[in-house]
């Protein structure tokens, strides 16, 4: 009874970036306003309201449960809180189980007040150094974000394992994480075990864009259930990454994808398919020892 075994798992984990902010249209805003206080623009507010309606459509769509519910995690930044507030207008109160402000899904820290000209030079340096490991002066690298997102995931799994997020007659739970572009990409990288090189090719989310990780019949999450192959290509996933997402859509939880190259093959050259060569060498050594003993 595969479905019963995984009944406590959320049906979907949805990552959504905030709406358009004043910093998205004018980088000079960061020189006078702390990053966490950057507000949404009127366009960003409208994007958030539209995104809320699209989220409800995803959860209440064809074949969905009548008893679906949503639980939100939100970055403490003003633009993410405002995005959640506006998106929430599309939800009835009985649909929302709860919400938690989660500091570990905040934006990458680029330093304190950010002078536009200086940041331009810094970001050019980041391109030469590598986007994942470059640490901003007085700020963070994407690798630092990876570490705190990893901690958040551990807490998330504890909540899931202890069934803390299921309430009442809910039989289809949706977790929605309202966060930032890089943080969301790092979340996907950690979840799907993508390499640093694969991360470097990922494209950012658009404002109020979201990615739906949906639970397959075998208990694995996949982007390929809700999203098309063309969308995955546009987001920067390689052919191998897309093939892995398709495999996950029907895979049983805990199975190993032997055709996934970055799990094994990309770390070694010419691994033997069996231990025959080693066994042959041992047999030859034993024969030589026997010959030496006869002499």
Automatic annotation (TrEMBL):
It comes from the Eukaryota. Residues 274-295 are annotated as: Disordered. Gene3D superfamilies: Phosphoglycerate mutase-like. GO terms for molecular function: catalytic activity. InterPro entries: His_Pase_superF_clade-1, His_PPase_superfam, PG/BPGM_mutase_AS, PGM-Related. PROSITE patterns: PG_MUTASE. PANTHER family: BROAD-RANGE ACID PHOSPHATASE DET1. This is Phosphoglycerate mutase. It comes from Stephania cephalantha.
């Amino acid at each position: 009874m595969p479905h019963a075994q995984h009944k406590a798992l959320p049906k979907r984990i949805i990552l959504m970036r905030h709406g358009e902010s004043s910093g998205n249209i004018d980088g000079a805003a960061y020189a006078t306003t702390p990053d966490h206080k950057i507000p949404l623009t009127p366009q960003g507010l409208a994007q958030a309201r539209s995104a809320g309606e699209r989220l409800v459509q995803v959860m209440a769509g064809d074949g969905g449960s009548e008893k679906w519910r949503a639980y939100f995690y939100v970055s403490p930044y003003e633009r993410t809180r405002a995005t959640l507030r506006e998106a929430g207008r599309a939800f009835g109160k009985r649909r929302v189980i709860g919400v938690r402000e989660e500091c570990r899904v905040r934006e990458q820290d680029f330093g304190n007040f950010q002078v536009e000209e200086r940041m331009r030079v810094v970001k050019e340096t980041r391109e030469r150094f590598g986007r994942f490991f470059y640490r901003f002066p007085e700020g963070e690298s994407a690798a630092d974000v990876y570490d705190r997102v990893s901690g958040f995931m551990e807490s998330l799994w504890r909540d899931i394992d202890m069934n803390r997020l299921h309430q009442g007659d809910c039989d289809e739970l949706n977790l929605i994480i309202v966060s930032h572009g890089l943080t969301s990409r790092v979340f996907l990288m950690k979840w799907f075990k993508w390499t640093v090189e694969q991360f470097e090719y990922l494209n950012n989310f658009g404002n109020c864009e979201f990615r739906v990780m949906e639970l397959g019949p075998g208990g694995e999450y996949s982007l390929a259930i809700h999203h098309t192959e063309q969308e995955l290509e546009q987001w920067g996933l390689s052919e191998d990454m897309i093939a892995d997402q398709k495999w996950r859509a029907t895979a049983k939880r805990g199975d190993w994808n032997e055709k996934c190259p970055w799990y094994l093959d990309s770390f070694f050259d010419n691994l033997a398919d069996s231990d025959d060569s080693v066994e042959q060498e041992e047999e030859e050594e034993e024969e030589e020892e026997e010959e030496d003993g006869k002499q």
